[in-house]
Amino acid sequence: xxxxxxxxxxxxxxxxxxxxxxxxxxxxxxxxxxxxxxxxxxxxxxxxxxxxxxxxxxxxxxxxxxxxxxxxxxxxxxxxxxxxxxxxxxxxxxxxxxxxxxxxxxxxxxxxxxxxxxxxxxxxxxxxxxxxxxxxxxxxxxxxxxxxxxxxxxxxxxxxxxxxxxxxxxxxxxxxxxxxxxxxxxxxxxxxxxxxxxxxxxxxxxxxxxxxxxxxxxxxxxxxxxxxxxxxxxxxxxxxxxxxxxxxxxxxxxxxxxxxxxxxxxxxxxxxxxxxxxxxxxxxxxxxxxxxxxxxxxxxxxxxxxxxxxxxxxxxxxxxxxxxxxxxxxxxxxxxxxxxxxxxxxxxxxxxxxxxxxxxxxxxxxxxxxxxxxxxxxxxxxxxxxxxxxxxxxxxxxxxxxxxxxxxxxxxxxxxxxxxxxxxxxxxxxxxxxxxxxxxxxxxxxxxxxxxxxxxxxxxxxxxxxxxxxxxxxxxxxxxxxxxxxxxxxxxxxxxxxxxxxxxxxxxxxxxxxxxxxxxxxxxxxxxxxxxxxxxxxxxxxxxxxxxxxxxxxxxxxxxxxxxxxxxxxxxxxxxxxxxxxxxxxxxxxxxxxxxxxxxxxxxxxxxxxxxxxxxxxxxxxxxxxxxxxxxxxxxxxxxxxxxxxxxxxxxxxxxxxxxxxxxxxxxxxxxxxxxxx
Length: 678
Ligand code: PEP
What we know:
The chain is α/β, with parallel strands linked by helices. About 40% of the residues lie in helices and about 15% in strands. The strands form 6 sheets. An 8-stranded parallel β-barrel has the order 20-21-22-23-24-25-26-27, surrounded by 6 helices. It has a 6-stranded parallel β-sheet with strand order 6-7-5-2-8-9. The longest helix is centred in the last third of the chain and has 19 residues, at about 610-625.
């Protein structure tokens, strides 16, 4: 369901029209290569749904770009190794076998089949390919050479990255980013390009990754159990701290568990330890205690005398590890504890193995975790696996398809779980609009029901936040129809008192009972035809917020006030008085609707520029009252004869975040085009 506030949603390929458009798409085809042959095509296959969708939607050309290893750095390392081993090193052969994109293009061609033509743009450069792209037949897929052959791709200075980004932007009218694995990189082809292309959207792979990973940090289905493994505490501090906020239990496994055990005063023998991280481990344990998060550390172990695949596994039945041994995996008591903790979860996130699973003798703990998480998925638990090693583990045990989501990004998934903003994702965010219909004193219950049914159907695929506010008599009927839909249920007014002898009034409790979620208050018809004062409106606003409703507070000047130059003074007064005593926390449930009285129901609309000027002014009033963060978050709708013809121009304005619609909301075929504007 929609949250209140001015949020920036991810825009996906579904929100744009690709017909006859040239598309430039970043994919993550950074696949393992040996002698020019793709060794594992998971990442190529993962991009195919988006590629097929764009082609099916009629794109003129689809140009793909990706990096493939890091030619300069990788070659240097390979050369050093060859010299050390006393072998000769052929740079061209090495690069051809590992970093050239032509074999990847050929592999993609095989995967897409004969109906699609994939052409390689040449190994000379990613620059200067516009003419080559434009001469291709409609529906052709063009693969550019490895972007990392150009140092501008990863350059630190933005102007350097922009040089390549501008050249790549020439190849598309629309930029699609489907490279989740590289989304944490602020590179020319992942982020800078968005500055030079009119539209930037996310592909299906990116969308799925965000859908599963972001809520773990923002709003997981609780209880959340996090299983974090891996060798080093130092690389997982940020993710541990971030996950502490929402988890009920944090399972810490793998090499880093021994640093935590040492921090607790346990004996860890010769196990891996980061002595400089003992302090950090202690403070994480302390923070968990304060937050009431259960920390699950190994209770027993499988040890060995040395770190070797052939080392003999030794059972260590207690938490303390003898001096001659090092911990390599967890023991059966720990696995039993994992089972108990996992059985309580509604969401599980797993990043990092709990033992040296690449050595068969020490893989049991990780295998058991994989099985337990897979079994939880079958019971309806949301399970998300991220990070190279845990993904390798679920693949090794053939359990990848048994998880809700297995991330394709190592670093990117970790950074998202740390709660960080990823440059490659941020460029695909668009504004989140709120479009509301005020049905006023119109329609019988039957007519209102028919309209609600039509809207449920027509707005099902809508991308914005919606509200229908019928008259009191139809709320119950309409509410039944809107249940489970993406349209919120509204009321057009409420009483200023909670209960009692108030003939003709309707209370917030009664509205709550009907399932109302949003109340429109201070509408100009209430202010001017029913003489509602700022103080009365304020009383209603506070009462509605106290009872957990969202509120749309309407403000706006009359024609006389406009002619006398009082627009700002009126809007300021109505905003300040309407919100008097509302806290900054409560404010996130408030939307302001700027509705110039002279424009309501008259067919006269404020020009987009005039409306924008008032919206900007009102945002400034909010900033003075509540600070800049709250002002940025505030959703400000425009109202006053909004229709399909003027909605796009109005909502293109910087500070107009949606619309409150009267007349045009009374029919599905006049409201739908406004609600689905893009
Ligand atoms: C309204 O009643 O809030 C309104 C804006 O009406 P209309 O769209 O008909 O001008």
